[in-house]
Specification:
Elements lengths: L1 H21 L6 E7 L4 H10 L5 H9 L1 E7 L7 H10 L40 H7 L4 E5 L6 H4 L22 E4 L3 H14 L4 E6 L1 H9 L4 H23 L7 E6 L18 H4 E7 L7 E2 L29 H8 L24 E5 L2 E6 L5 E6 L7 E2 L5 E2 L4 E5 L9 E6 L1
Helix pairs in contact: 7-9, 8-9
The chain binds zinc ion.
Amino acid sequence: MSVFKYNRICLFAMFAFWFSLTAQGAVSHVLHITVDGLGGYQIKGYLETNAASFPNFKRLQSEGACTFNARCDYDYSETVPNHVTVLTARPVEQPAGITNLVRHGYSANSSGATTIHNYVNPTFYKASTMDVVHDNGLKVAIFLGKTKLAVCTNSYNNVNGAQDLIGEDNGKQKYDLAKIDSSSPPLLAVMTNLLATNPPNYLFFHFVEPDTVGHSYKWNTPQWSNSIVTVDNWLGQIFRIIDSSPILSNDTAIVLCADHGGGGDDNGLHMNPTRLLNYTIPIFVKGPGFEPGSDLYQYFSNRFDPGTERPEQGGVPQPLHNGDTGNIALMLLGLPEIPDSYWRPQYVGISQNIAIEILKSNNRLILRWLPQSGYLPVFSESLTGDWSVITNQIQNNGTYNYIEVIPNYQLNSGFYRLRKN
Ligand SMILES: [Zn+2]
């Protein structure tokens, strides 16, 4: 028991050190992918029982971090509102107790003459992932598999996009290439050619088929699981291009999520946002700073696994949301977060030249770290449990801040890490 506990603590100390090593490890290319209607429970089940039919989703899981228990938007489990959330890192509606300058407000599951910025009052510009990439002088391409998603590009074209005030003026249009169609193959043909010949830094791709097949045949039917096999094959095409490209291999991250799940409605569809199968979605992140085969929840100090619950959006901490994936994609590119965005998962250790070390001293442990303003150790009995801040046992020996811990061998495990206060 005592050896087990000690190993768990040491392992976590190595994690903390490794975070600091990869803090500078941004990549030059990120693929930000949505799979329309990919329910967390369905893909989890397929990978557990029939992984051989889904080798590329399996590869994302085994070479990166993932969760099958993230959330779509609290109020809407439909395509357009959630894609706006994914791109802007804002909830659709105003979270309780929080200013209405937080929501994006685009609740329509369609595109009209309006933009994301002027759909509801108060009207104001809502920046997207594309703004940050473009304004920092990098290249953006976006591929959308539903024509009603056009609001996601119309809002950021050379009329409706904001002025580029960062560095060189790259123009108001926030993307270098945008293509919209009603199915993946025509988009994929252009996208894979672009990836192989002139890859953008930020490539957003929406796979529509699981949703259209779900609406025709319902979720989790043989037809539906076949549509996931099809998407898996397309992911395989993308992997082959990345693997064989000296520009892309080892310099490309993938962030994949769903806009919403499905199969939770009484009629087998996905419109009711209060239903478990509709609001539960997966998120896969493959890139530097994310350990192969790990749980995505362990990387963020302000995110927790909600079990089967659907926590309201104003509380703290929050589950991971599809709205978190935009800022994760930007982090992987070494870029700042979307200005004024709401969904901001706090990656533990990123850009922090700080590590917690654990030393053995007689029958006690010394946890030490270099003093740096605003960091405190936190403790939890499990990686997905509550973290409590340790404030009153901190000592300083001139070089290090440290705390002494006398292990309690009645406990199975204990975890320490540093968190911004
Ligand atoms: Zn959808």
